[in-house]
Structures are given as structure tokens and as C-alpha cells.
Design a protein that fits this description.
mainly alpha; 295 residues; single chain; 2% strand; 2 domains; globular; MetI-like fold
Length: 295
């Protein structure tokens, strides 16, 4: 039998609903409604003044039969392959160094995190000068001329380097929080048993921070699959190498806001969401084999 709520409990319940109302409204207005409208738009043909008419799966047929779309998909996946493994490895290394007993530890943490708070436009401008094929500092250091941003074989790699540099501080801070939650007693017991530092890293550190590493990996994978602003600011629209580096989100921007083909752009957006969802599902299935929640 369902127990009746007292007046005080009903009042508390109303206050609870009132407190979560802004969050619920924010999710409905800023997340769920745009998603549903994007799904609707992907099955429509947009006209002037924002009008649209239903055209079935015509946008998807056009999308899957366009070589440019598949090239953008491959570029997005390749960018993810270039940035995520290297970026996570560098972030873990930085986190281990920041967790060590060194002087000015707080200062080093701020320095590594600084790229996350710098405006992306400023970051892109500085790196474009550094990657300049004629008088860039990187070519000066290498002692050779490499057309980093105008060569199809190096343009995406250059963008990946900037992406890794920009995100490594944020990822390192997340991993550092996981490292600081590991009890020192594990390492003291390992020292007594004669375990080397390498053995301690693989037997204690990695298993203990695997949940934090898993969350950081998902976040970095999603960010890489949604890359747009970095490529937009690093590669000019007049650059002939653009088709070899444009991502799915860049193609979405171009079709939606330059060409005005919002129905086709919505189909590209839905494909990107499907791709991110598929990668995330694979990660959640695979995490059962390497993520340790028992300790």
C-alpha cells in the first residue's frame, strides 16, 4: 500500500522539483530539442527563409554517394588516430612528472594547463607562424624546408600536433587527480617486496588510474571526432590542401553556413553522432578487459 506523503514531505518534493527545473529545461531546450530537430532536418530539403520540405532519405543517399563525404570521414578517423594515442601517452607522462616530488610543482601545473585557457584563434595564429614553410621556427630548428600546411602529407599531422599540445594539459590534470588518489601504502609494500619502478607502474599505477584513464580517453576521442575549429583556423579556404584535411564537422559547417544546404548538413551531423556513438560503445565493451574498478 502506497504511503501518503506528509505536508512537509510534499513541500520538500516541490522544492526539489523547483531546484532541478533549470537543469531539466536546459537539457530539453539546448540538447534534446536541437537533436530532434536535426533528425527532422536530415530528412528534409531546406528552402529560402528557413523553410523545409520532407524529401525522405535523399540527403543520406547523396551523402553516401559523395566521395568528398567519405574523404572527410577518413580524415576525421585519421585525425583521431594521430591525436588520441599520442596525446594520452604524453598526458600520462606529464601527469607522472607533475605527481613527482619536484620544486615549483604548482607552477608547472599552471604552465601545462595554460593552453586550455588561451583563445584558440591566438593558438592557431602562433602555430601557423611556427609552421610557416619559408621562415617558420620549426623549419629553422630542423634545418630543412617543409611545407607543413600546404603539403597534403603533412597538413593533417601539423594540425594533430597543435591539437595534442592544446589538450595535453587538461588531460594531464585529470590523470593527476587519479594518481593522487592512489595510497602510498601500495608503493611502500611494493618497495619492500623489491618491485622495480617499472613493475610498480604496470602493476599498481596503471590499474589504479584505469577508471580515470578510461573517462579521459572517451572525452579525448569525442573531441577528436568533432574537430572543426582547429582545422578552420589552421588551413585557409583558399589552401589547395583543404580537401585532404577537412573533417566531418568542417564539411558540416561548410554545407550548413556557406552553401546553405542545411538538410544535407544535418545528415552529416547525424552520421558524426552515429560514429561517435559507435566508438563509445566499442570503448565501453572493451573497458571490461582493462579498466579496474575493484581496487
Amino acid at each position: 500500500m502506497k504511503q501518503k506523503l506528509t505536508q512537509a514531505e510534499k513541500r520538500e518534493q516541490r522544492w526539489a522539483y523547483l531546484m532541478i527545473a533549470p537543469t531539466i529545461l536546459g537539457l530539453l531546450i539546448l540538447n534534446y530539442y536541437p537533436l530532434l530537430d536535426t533528425i527532422r532536418l536530415s530528412f528534409s530539403k531546406t528552402q529560402t527563409f528557413g523553410k523545409s520540405t520532407f524529401n525522405g532519405i535523399e540527403n543520406y543517399i547523396t551523402m553516401f554517394s559523395t566521395p568528398e563525404f567519405w574523404k572527410a570521414t577518413l580524415n576525421t578517423i585519421w585525425f583521431c588516430v594521430l591525436t588520441v594515442p599520442v596525446g594520452m601517452a604524453v598526458a600520462l607522462l606529464v601527469a607522472l612528472l607533475l605527481n613527482a616530488k619536484v620544486r615549483f610543482k604548482s607552477g608547472f601545473r599552471a604552465i601545462y594547463f595554460l593552453p586550455m585557457v588561451v583563445a584558440p584563434a591566438a593558438v592557431a595564429m602562433v602555430w601557423r607562424w611556427m609552421f610557416n614553410g619559408q621562415y617558420g621556427i620549426i623549419n629553422t630548428i630542423l634545418g630543412r624546408q617543409v611545407n607543413w600546411l600546404t603539403d597534403p602529407s603533412t597538413a593533417l599531422i601539423a594540425c594533430a600536433i597543435v591539437a595534442i599540445w592544446s589538450a595535453v594539459g587538461y588531460d594531464a590534470v585529470l590523470l593527476l587527480s587519479g594518481l593522487q588518489n592512489i595510497s602510498r601504502t601500495y608503493y611502500e609494500a611494493a618497495d619492500i617486496d623489491g618491485a622495480s619502478k617499472i613493475r610498480q607502474f604496470f602493476s599498481i599505477t596503471l590499474p589504479m588510474i584505469s577508471p580515470t584513464l578510461f573517462v579521459t580517453l572517451i572525452m579525448r576521442m569525442m573531441a577528436s571526432l568533432k574537430v572543426y575549429d582547429l582545422i578552420y583556423m589552421m588551413i585557409d579556404t583558399s589552401n589547395p590542401v583543404l580537401p585532404d584535411v577537412q573533417s566531418l564537422m568542417y564539411l558540416f559547417y561548410r554545407e550548413a553556413f556557406v552553401a546553405g544546404n542545411k538538410g544535407y548538413a544535418a545528415a552529416i551531423c547525424m552520421w558524426t553522432i552515429l560514429l561517435i556513438g559507435l566508438v563509445t560503445i566499442i570503448q565501453f565493451i572493451g573497458q571490461k578487459k582493462w579498466v579496474n574498478y575493484d581496487v
